[in-house]
Structure formats: structure tokens, C-alpha cells
């Protein structure tokens, strides 16, 4: 078959590259910027792909599949690898049978994450090779190389991308004839390799060190690393998307472009250093390459000038190079356009969001609005502390709802609530968590609360999907990643079965029920769970009877504005509902809350 | 507009989540690839899709390295909403072209009374010391006349098509649009593209 050229995102290219490399099992938990890898590979029906309960399970399923001899892809966002660190380190110790590639999608600049971390350190920690592509073509090409290295060196391979590589589209030339044939699946019993008793693990450790030595030799000759000859004055060492910025900034320089970024070859680095007068490392986040190169006794510059956090871009690299006197300082633009004090446009809960009502109720309990200042701070407790979790609902932190006091990592809301109560806070404590996050890692926290008799209220916002990352299925949705109908895991039954005695399930769009359930749960003085069920507005296509504000009845009290619904707007002192955004009968929360009964369906107003 | 023989064409499309900006830049990216150019594009990510500010960087040339456009280097800034035009003005190169859809989508902070939506004069004035080439387009009105405001993105693409330095045939545009839209709304969108192109027919580029 012939070659074709397509514009693909890094994630699409990884999925296709893995498929063409013969991957037969792919696992993941959704997480920006990695989600589309599994979404794309799940479309191939001649392989098995799953949304796993969380990244730890994804890694374990991947490890089992690798032991069966098939090529396996496990993908996750950077903080997902924290969750999966235990089985990842186990995989690094046992090694593999079928090739195992673990994609870590880092998020420099924190576009959609709870923190910034440089997962290149995991390669050193696990003594496993790490490959980093800088565009979609490399994302596609390097997949095949990653599987060959995995099998040849008996190791999982870390495949590190960043948001800018994952989500940028660039041209990929695909070899449609290169699809690799299926391998035989078999598990060969080998307890010294697969059963990590101390005595066996001790036998594996020397293998891990030998592996790094062998990979260091590979790093000298592999085509994953390339030297691009330049003027011989400046030598740039770079990898990933940072390399792309560097190519724009240093058109004439010599480049050592690294694709295998761990381990590095001292021979290759020394040879390159000998060809140029000045060496400069251009890398995003930590001085990972730079520290290794300096440890080889090679003089380089880099992080004295290049930012250690956030995302790089052409301007940042150019500025750093000017400070290092590699290029002349930029002439400041004669005129730059700016306009001061623009209103921000933060992301919001959607019109018709099933979470809005529950947060409206939570925001009004404990007189939070009177205690919290504009920045959401208060020395005094408010009467209700709300520990939060990760999902769309984290947006309830913003005004006007301001109904979240903590967000740490997936599933943390429940454990944090237990800690607050056990430490002796006087306020009531509610933990708010979504359905997919509850499945991911809320269940263990809830069991801790039951076991240790923590008097907290857990509010599970169940919209039936993993909304934040783009509506992926999960154990409670009843559908698999490849579209098959599966057994639904019933959250209410899980909660009851684990031993929670005070459980209520309410309709998210019935404000009275939501308020009475949350109030009685908080007032009950025991561990309680409220499941607030309502369909995600984005997946809800029915929009009948949009709501309308009767201007004669409305006294502009502003209660409806406190829902934070983007459809409810105010212009020239008058509140109105933007019909193109309103979800109508699917929601109706504003109508229930309006003290003057000024909001009703359009059809009853004669409009 | 300079030729693309050696240079590059950097287009920044901005607006509000839900306006179809990313689809518009996907179509132009594919069309540019079809006529043999190198293309890179990168969009706003993650949480921003929920009513937030959206940007799409599109870089076209013989060879493109960085997927991100540098500040003060965009050749064209195309804004689907006025406030977003003002927000991203810093990306425009001196003398670059600005196309603004004459539409205000006030953020929630306006309704809550904590902030004020800037006046048209302030928004248009913000471009004055960078470029004289500013076009205010009645996109929403035009596509409402066509019958569906969801075709705004294709209308804007039609408007933009007049500003592009490379030769793209009608067939190439049609092919690019058809690749990204379902067949049943194709005719409507073709009309929106034509309407956009016509709206730009009189402008002095």
C-alpha cells in the first residue's frame, strides 16, 4: 500500500503508530492531555481497548497483557503516573514479554491539571528508557521503535509527550502497508521473573542496571537521536516541542536532537560538544538533560536563562538565548497593542449543568458568602467546609458559587474530609466528588470513613459520564470504551454494600429535594451519602420550553444570577435568559429558585 | 499580503467555546496541506472548552517548526467575538490584518456587575497603533439570514479566504469543508462560505 499524508494530532499519531506496531491491548483512564490516545485506538476492532477504573488498574491490566506476549499500550496524564507508580515500578522490575509502552502526557503550563511535574524523572527512577517525540510524525514513527526497544531490552518504555505535542496537529506521512502481524499469545511460567518475592526481586535489580548500561550504548547509535550540522558556533541540545521552538530561534545552529532522552550517551554528547564552540540546552520544565550533561563534565548553559516552569514558546527561547549572548537582544517592538483591565472569561459550569443546583444549595449553607472574602479566604470557619475533587465541578470554586474549599488530586475529597473532622474542626464537612472520580479512587476513601466512623457527608454528583475530559464511559455508564454494553456498577449499591446507613438519592434538577437531602445529611450527625443524579447538559439534546423572565414581575433581586448559569444574563439592569443557551425543561432550576416566580417556560408567557 | 514562497502565514483564530473555531482552522489546515504546504496547528485545551476563551494557532509555510505563533508575529487575527479580539491583540504583527465578528458575548462577570464589557471604540482603538487593517464583519446577522447561526465558522472562513496569499480553488475548499461536515448540512455551509466571501468582496486588502 502507498504512503499517505495526513494532518494528525500527536495523540492521533500515537494511536495509529501503536496500532501499526501491532498493539493488541490498550488501556487508559481519561486525563487531559492524554485522553484522545485511547479514544482513537479504541476505534480498531481487532484489538482490545478499555477505560480502566484508574491509572493503577490500567497499568496492571497492561502488565498482564504484556506477560501474555502481546504488544500493549498504557496511556495517562502526568499525574496519572503518580497513581500508577506502584505497578509501573513493578513493571520496571519484572520487565516484559510483549512490548509495553507507557505514555506519560505532561502538562507544562498547567492547561488542565492540578499541578505541574516533569515525568522524565520517572525514567531514572524506574531505570527504563524514555522516548520523546517533538511532533506528530515522530509520535507515529517512534512508536515502532519503542516496541522494539521494549522487547529487546526486556523493559517497559516510557513515551513522554507534553500538551503541546499531544494536542498540536502536524503533517504525518503514514506507511499503511507497515501494519505488523499478530504474535502468538502465551504466558510462560517464570516465577523468578514474575513473582517479586524479595529473593526474586534481588535477582532482577542487576538486570535493571545492566539494562541502563546497554541502553546507554544504544543511545550513541540510535537514529532516535540526530545531529543536524550547522555553523559550528552554537550547538543546541533539545528534545520534544522545545526543539521546534529552538529551530525557529536558531536557524543556523548545530543541533543534537534527542529522541531517546534517557539514558543519554556520554560519547555522543562529548562528540557533539567537540564540534561546537558553545553548548545550550533548550528544554521545558526541569534541567533534566542539562544536569545529566553537566555530570558528564561537559560545559553547557540552559536553565540560567530558560524558565524552569511553565510552557516554553518562541519568545521565551529567544529571550533566553539573548541573555546567554548567543543571539543579539531583540529590538523591542515599536508599538505593542494592549487594552487594560479586560473582563476574564473563565470556564463555567454549562447552562443546564446538573451540578449547579447542588452547589447552589451548598453555597447557601453555613453562610459561606458572608464569611469568605473576595479571594475566597477567611480566618474563621464558615459553618460548612466543602472538600472538592477533580472534574467539571471544580469550577464551582469560582464566583458566584464559591462552593469548594479544597481540591488536591483524584479522590482526595473524602480522605481530606475525614482528616478535617478527625482533627477536630467545629464546622460540618462535606466532600463533593463526581461519579467517575468516585469509581477512580473515591471508594477507598469512603470505606475508610465507614471503618473509622468519620461523621462526614459525601455528595456524589452523578452525571453518568466522565464529562470533564469529553464524556468518556466509566464503570457506572454501562458502556465500554469500544462501545459494548457492559454491566453497570451501581454507585448506590456500592455505597450501601460497603455499609453506609444514611444514603439518599435525589434528582439534581429538583432543588427542594436536593436541599432537604443535603440539609438532613449534614444535620444527621453520622456518615451520610447523598447521590445527586442528573444527565450532563452537554449530552442532553432535548431543549424544550426554554425559560423566560417576565420583566414586570422580576424585581432584579439577583438570586438566579447566583446559580452561575451562563444563560442567565443582565443587561442595562435587567435580568434575562439567553434563549440560545437555555436548556429549558431539562433543567428549570432558576424557575424553582425565583422568589417572585418571574421565571416560566416561554409558552406560558405568550411570548 | 506577502507571498508564501519563502515566508510563513500565521493565523490566530479566537472566540468563545462553541463557536466552531477549531473546526474552521481544521478545515483551512487540511486545505493548506492539500495544496502541498506544511501546516501546524494547536488549539486551546482542556477546561477552556466550557464557555471559556478559545484560541487556535494555525501556521502555514514551506516548513513550519513551532506549532505556537509568537507574540507580535501573527499575520492575521480572526476574532469570532469582540472581547476576544481585544484579548489577543498582542499576537498581531505590526501591519497585520484583523477580522472581527461584530458580536459581544458578555462573560458572567458582566452580569454579576463586577466587570464592564469594553466599548467598541476601546476594542477597535486597541489595534490602532499596530495596524490600520481592521475589518468589522456582521457575521451573525449574515448567517441568521441564511437560516442557521451555527454556520458562522464557515462564513468567517469564507471571509478569511479573500485574505490568503496562496491560490486555493473552489473545489479544494469544497473538499476541505466536506471532509469535516455531515452531508446533510453541506449545502447550507457552502452558502455560508460563499456569503462570507461575498462580504469580503468589497474590502481593500
Q: In which order are the strands of the major sheet of chain A placed?
A: 3-2-4-5-7-6-12
Mean pLDDT rating of chain A: 94
Radius of gyration of chain A: 27 Å
Rg of chain B (C-alpha, Å): 16 Å
N-to-C CA distance of chain A: 61 Å
* Overall geometry of chain B: globular
Q: What is the CATH homologous superfamily assignment of the largest domain in chain A? A: Thiamin diphosphate (ThDP)-binding fold, Pyr/PP domains
Q: Tally the structural domains of chain A.
A: 4
CATH class of the largest domain in chain A, anyone?
A: Alpha Beta
Brief sketch in words of this structure:
The complex is a heterodimer of chains A (607) and B (205). Chain A is an alpha/beta fold.
List keywords for this structure.
heterodimer; A: 607 residues; alpha/beta; Rossmann fold; 4 domains; seven-stranded mixed β-sheet; five-stranded parallel β-sheet; 22 strands; 35% helix; 18% strand; globular; B: 205 residues; Pyruvate-ferredoxin Oxidoreductase, domain 3; six-stranded mixed β-sheet; 8 helices; 6 strands; 36% helix
Explain what the structure shows.
The complex is a heterodimer of chains A (607) and B (205). With 607 residues, chain A is of the alpha/beta class. Chain A has four domains: 3-221, 3-Layer(aba) Sandwich (Rossmann fold), CATH 3.40.50; 226-323, Rossmann fold, CATH 3.40.50; 354-533, Thiamin diphosphate (ThDP)-binding fold, Pyr/PP domains (Rossmann fold), CATH 3.40.50; 547-604, Alpha-Beta Plaits. Helices cover 35% and strands 18% of the residues of chain A. In chain A, helix 3 packs parallel to helix 5 and helix 18 packs parallel to helix 19. The relative contact order of chain A is 0.08. Chain B is globular. The interface between A and B is large, with 55 and 60 residues. Strand 8 of chain A pairs antiparallel with strand 2 (38-43) of chain B.
